[in-house]
Amino acid sequence: MSTITRFAPSPTGMLHIGGARTALFTILYARHTGGKALLRIDDTDRERSTEAAVQAIFEGLDWLGLKFDGEPIFQHLRLSRHVEVAEQLLASGKAYRCYATAEELEEMRKAAARRGLPPRYDGRWRDRDPSEAPEGAPFVIRLKTPRTGSTIIPDRVHSTITFANSDLDDFVLLRGDGSPTYMHSTVVDDIDMGVTHIIRGDDHMTNAARQAQIYDALGVARPVYAHIPLIHGPDGQKLSKRHGAVGIGEYRDQGFLPEAVVSYLMGLGWASGLEHPTMETAAPAFDLSHLGKSPARLDADALVSANFHFMKHAEDARLAELILPHLGRAPDDPAKALLTAAMPGLKERAKTVPHLAETAAFYLAPRPIPLEEAAHAVLTEEALTRVRAVFEALQGHADWSHDALAALVKAQAKALDVPFVKLGQPLRAALTGRTNSPGVAEVMALLGREESLGRLADALSA
């Protein structure tokens, strides 16, 4: 039987980092087994589900490069099917109509609270004849769950999860208005989609017990479950906004590359043994048996390290296009060609896209370029004397290639009888306004003759 996994987010907010990891693991396992990964939007809660949230999920998945098989399924479009299955359970005696009033349910809740117990339905309509209810009285449909024994869930992460059936009440399948509950809709959809494996956060473990009881009532084999521990903050506490970025869009806005975020997410709960894994390298190695049982912790330094690696290996033109908006330039700005050519000397040091843009800004700075405080301090009167010697030597220099310029500057340092750094640093400061940049020959070659000489002249006349 072919493996079918699914990712089923509820569109009530952003795609958060935990959901993104679940989507990633869902796809990796499907690819590892040669199966399919499906996407379903669990939007039966029409009051809380929004189109903006749906689009945020799609955009987050697309940015990360997480591709599912086939078109996404929208749960709310299948409500009639959910109702049909609930009525089948009712007809077979596996479910029943419950006419308990709101006041009765509230009294059950209070009685449980007085005894220090969680609220539970007491089953008062479980074996009663519906004819005992007042004519036209509203009702819900509840599953007739087993009252003794245990519901045992084999789990690929936690081995076995056991729930005492006495702790699980007869839960609602269809509400009083005829709408299905999430618990019921999820099982019906998973069955109809042919889902064989469900990978999700371990906050769904209690749901697994109730959903397993629906599978059993329908006489359908349960899927294989893998409940992965949640992601915690660096302090070991449950992830929240106080820990910084928790939405995938925030990582994009902070300038992380999607492949770096994906690679980082793979390390949160999966012992891959791979260095800087990608979708291509991870799929053959991904197996549920390698998922950890303890919560993973966010590590900002590890994410920055991953991004640093992938920035160095990214295509130059792509990086140039990414930094243009940060430099106030349009995507079709002619400066893209210069930035692309300069990228090999820039991206080796960049941690994020905004950081890369900041290091590249001097190439596009209008003259006279601003000088950082450290660069201004470098340009002493003595240093400017050396800069002038290079400036004069460059006046009649025809070959503006990197190698020719490097040879000229080296020759000038020798002629001036100074270490190369004593000439290179003031030249760098005059050309870039900084004390850190690619080599001065590379900078001059990329800036071109006119711009390079102009910047040196500005420094000499300041």
Automatic annotation (TrEMBL):
Keywords: Aminoacyl-tRNA synthetase, ATP-binding, Cytoplasm, Ligase, Nucleotide-binding, Protein biosynthesis
One Pfam family hit: tRNA-synt_1c
Domain annotation Aminoacyl-tRNA synthetase class I anticodon-binding: ranges: 318-460
Residue ranges of the motif 'HIGH' region: 9-19
Residues of the Glutamyl/glutaminyl-tRNA synthetase class Ib catalytic domain: 5-302
One MF annotation (Gene Ontology) recorded for this entry: zinc ion binding
Motif ('KMSKS' region): 238-242
Main localization (coarse): cytoplasm
Reactions accelerated catalytically: tRNA(Glu) + L-glutamate + ATP = L-glutamyl-tRNA(Glu) + AMP + diphosphate
Function: Catalyzes the attachment of glutamate to tRNA(Glu) in a two-step reaction: glutamate is first activated by ATP to form Glu-AMP and then transferred to the acceptor end of tRNA(Glu).
Subunit description: Monomer.
Protein's name according to its UniProt entry: Glutamate--tRNA ligase
Organism: Elstera litoralis
